């Protein structure tokens, strides 16, 4: 490879990197100013099939179809959100008051079960006690450290719940601002929905043919892969949450709704899932002698596993999902980069990158860097296949 070719590759590489970095920072700059309209556009796209059905089958004017669809979607979502938030606030408040008492009971049970009824441990404790009596300063330091650690565990649990409640309180405090943004989103969805056919007819011809073709493939695969993946996962965790809620309510467990929401969220974790909560809970109930509730939770866990394993192959086809290992990697990287929201963004970005790979975007970029624009524009080339 001659020097001129190497120079061209380096220049095109720098140009591609500069374009991607510029696009990233442009999105970072523009998104805070346009996100209500972007969200409104997504909502308009979501309700578009229903609007077309109302137009063609029910003979609704387009403005009436858009209005009815938005009322059903936004009204139903807000009603569900208000109900869930009110229930979670009540149950978390009660749980925060009960948590210190629970830790005290658990500490007492562990003391009674594993220490007082175990001769070898008692003998070891006597030896330690004799040592402590001869070294009162160290005894005081150890006891103080134990109390502090136990108190720290209880305080961490209580603080976690308190932080959630504080976050909900902050959300309610900023409710006027959020309500204003919501109004902009609904209005944007309404006007975009009304003008959707005209907007498509005006802007689609402005897009270059190659970009339009690639964009069409990306959107098609995104609908199949990304939206299908999200829809399948939301369906699965919703089914899990409902089963847990019904099961815990029948078993008479307090805070059933909150526990169901937590369990449903944990169901997103590959391999672990609901077992993260259910298995330790069953073990604790069996150790404490509450065999009835422990057996009930174990049966509930088995029911969840059977239902999920039966439904998952039907809801998540192999060509729209990602492997459990890749999901786990995406969850961890998303958590490190974006915090809690990374648990959602990680898999979503992974699916998006897979879609871009499948439609040949990265292949096109590589051909551009190595061969230049002429390679991309050659009819019948690899990128067109």
Automatic annotation (TrEMBL):
Its main location: membrane. It is a multi-pass membrane protein. It holds the Pfam family AI-2E_transport. The chain crosses the membrane at residues 63-85, 175-194, 229-248, 268-286, 293-311, 331-357. Keywords: Membrane, Transmembrane, Transmembrane helix. InterPro entries: AI-2E-like, YtvI-like. It is found in: Membrane. NCBIfam families: spore_ytvI (TIGR02872). Belongs to the autoinducer-2 exporter (AI-2E) (TC 2.A.86) family. This is Sporulation integral membrane protein YtvI. It comes from Kroppenstedtia sanguinis. The gene is ytvI.
